[in-house]
Protein 1
Amino acid sequence: MGSFIPTKADQEICRNLTKRFSDQLVPGGGGKTYMQQLRDHHGRENLFDGNHHLQRVAHRLATSVTGGAYVPADPTSRSRWHHLLRKLLTPQTTKAINTVLKKILESPGISYAVFSTQPAPTVQNFELHPSNSGDPMLLLDANGKVFCQVILDCHDDQPLPTPAPGTEPDPPDPETTPEKPIGVRRKKKKPVKKAKSSKKKAPARKSARKKR
């Protein structure tokens, strides 16, 4: 195993993505899991159709879990992550990622997905394990649930290059097509009207006149 990968930023990104594709219940999500919520969104907007940019998709997925906080939290690590998705992946790897994630969302038999990175000296640059095949790696957990392992193989066991300042917008630029919010739309609570006081005001007392 490599001594550097997965990095702290790798772990932060993978934890976030694993939660986004998990069967955990969404707080305030009307009894839906993160996966169910994402599948609902897939019916409205296909994030993995090849026309969406992965760095923007990753940002939207991350903030839909955190409620707005960016992932990774460190700005330099975040710029490296976005640069990897925008510039360093080959078209074959990008296609494999889109294909696998789309298949996960369109396969109700898959309960959840687990994301990770690993050093792999035999691959070229970066590849989705195994060999950019585009086939989900399915396993069975202890509870009999089918889940998918999503592993990014990295040739070099070293830090990602830091992009030149200003080359990676933070957050990534929105898509040119309309973006739909990811998540359950919560109904706004109507303001509670204060009950009118039932107490009647006491009539003003007339001042007693002194007899002369």
Protein 2
Amino acid sequence: MKKHTYLRLFFLVAALFSMAVAQFSFFSGGKYILSAHIFGHVILLLIAAPFSVLAMRERPEARGGLAFGLSRWLSAMPWLNWILGIGILWIWQVPSILNALMTWDSPGFHRHLHLLSFLHSGSLLLAGILFCWPFAGPYQSHRLSAPESLLYLTTGWVAITLLASLIGFATSGLYGGPILTVSHREQLLAGLVLWVPACILCLGAAIYLLREWISGELWIHHEFYRRNKRRPARTAQDHEQIPAGKGELVPRGGAIIPHHSPQQI
């Protein structure tokens, strides 16, 4: 098996494991049920979904097919992917919706498998895939450039930071409702659980994209100074009497001046 095959297999196993961890966190929160649900959201949206996208492989023979057309359509409107990805995450943090979900999930596994649970997990995974597709999709020709990806990730991080602040500093009793008791300390912990992993993952992705930008497009105009072969320099007592050859350098007045023949000009 090739190296890329092993890498995609690793991403696939990591995505499946992350999904299992997220599902386990939804019904094993106990005292910290709000933090457990937020942790599951982070796992599905920011870990399982990127691994699922990275596990896909680019198929040059499929250009023009259904997968290629779908990828091009998804990448053509990155703002729509951003709105859907971040918007679905925000919708599931609405107190009335999250309270209903926590009420269903709190008794145990036998009540966890219901329609709302499947809709909850599936929509978050889909939101993460949509959000990651413009800068991590399988077709590199459809990906955003490094500066665009940096702007894309930065705005996403700002939206998640705002959401974490709203959760952490919300009015005490807003989450949980009359059945479940969620303290203000628990809300602060839930906000940190959402914000800290998002910061780490976005920072790591930003460093990688910045490295790609610097090593690629940013210095393309300076290739002359890095790759141009050194041309021989001619010295003479009387520089005006000995003409320079084609592509040679002649010192004049203390400075080395490139000489170009009429053909070069």
Protein 3
Amino acid sequence: MRIAEAALGLVGSISPGTPEELATALVKPHAPNLLVNGDQPGAWLRRMLLSTHKPFVLALDEPETAASDLVCRYGLVPSDATRRLGCSCASIVPCLRLPGALVLRADPHWHEPLVTAGEMARHLGIEIDPGEIERIVAEVTAAGLGPETSDAAQLDEAALALVKGALSAYADHFSGAALDRITWGRELFLIDGQQPATGAVDVTGRVRALIYGPYISLPPGNWLAEVVLGFSQEATDVNFVVDVLSAGSQLSVTSIRPPERGVFPIDLSFTIGEENDRPVEFRVVNERAAFDGRVMLGHVTLSLQHDRVTPRLNF
């Protein structure tokens, strides 16, 4: 922003969540120039960047480091930090393939601030003297405005396992690998009273969602989910519906009547469309009122089916 101000004059900043918010800022600007930023670029913004061929910058940190930062510095519980970063990572994945993207990584780009600043200015078409860039970088460095270091090791073992399961695949993907399997731990899901689904749930009572969540977005594509559930002997008398929803629509559904006490995997296939950036919800529902029994979530694993063609929209 300092570079833009030096070259263009006064610059305002906005983090729009909808196209209407962006339109309002453009119609009633508080400054002659506008910087648009955010940590969860929606489908509408991706569509706009693609249709206008505008250059933009993607600044990426290591997801595990960012999670530690949210927990240790800002006081979020690990599950909330993981949900927030999972949604952010999912929204960034389709941006990586847009032609106007300049992708920067906190490491190594921050270690070469002068080179990085010059690269950003050139990519965004900002005409500025190299000496002015050097002066701005020196002022920012002297003011100590660089990123504060956070160490993922600050998280306890359980929190680190939760974060790694949900976010490590994105970290590898941002480094050039194919998007690998994502694991959502039971701590990300909820039971009655919106409590974490870390223990067995008593199915006694009315028909209801016994386990639900985690309200995390996924990148567009064809997905295969494996929901691992454990059942008590008493629960073998009950049929359970397992489904996945997003944006108010049921994407996939199946059912299971456990044949015996034990742990069973349930598979669900579903598609996240290019325009769907809403969070995903899995549910485990007892099909009828129950008098006894317990069910417990192990985890949910998600695999992007790379060998299948994802429906694409023509912008």
Protein 4
Amino acid sequence: MIHLTEGLLLVLEYGIAVFCFVDVARANEAAVPWIPRWGWIVAVLVFPLAASVTWIVATRKRREKLRGVAAPEGATGEVFGQVSEAVRRARACHFGSLEDDAALLAQLWDVNEEHEETLRRWEADLRHREEVLRQRVARERATRGRHMDAA
């Protein structure tokens, strides 16, 4: 490894390198810029400071999109502000109004009722099939019993 620092700065260099190594290893392959993932890993291992700084600069836009900070290309300020506000609300676990929640619960209730009705029909069909099978087995036993008596 090539080190440009010593002492406390060396610890900082290794900290950034470890962060970047983990970030490269966990990044989606499509999100890795410029060179393949294995190239970034080798670069971070051989040139920890330079490769780490380059990785952070190369993935800045991706990080901003993940955080909801940067406006995507072509977005106007007002629309982007509304979207980022929605992202902040969602991250704060505010999912909607009580009316929206009530409508969702009503839909879930209806779906649950449909599933319960389907289950009741299946159970009735299964009981009917079992009864038909029992009757067929009883007839076969009775028929077999008569054949045995005739012999």
